[in-house]
Amino acid sequence: MLMPQRTLPDGSAIPALGLGTWRMGERAEARAAEILAVREALRMGYRLLDTAEMYGEGGAESMLGEALRQAFAAGEAQREDLTIVSKVYPHHASARGVIEACERSLQRLKLDRIDLYLLHWRGEYALAETLAGFAQLQRRGLILHWGVSNFDVADLEELFALPGGSACAANQVYYSLGARGVEFDLLPWQARHRLPLMAYSPIDQGALGGHPVLQRIGQRLGVSAAQVALAWVLRQPEVIAIPKAVRTAHLQDNLAAAELRLSANDLQALDAAFAPPGAKQPLAMI
Question: What is the pTM of this model?
Answer without folding.
Answer: 0.97
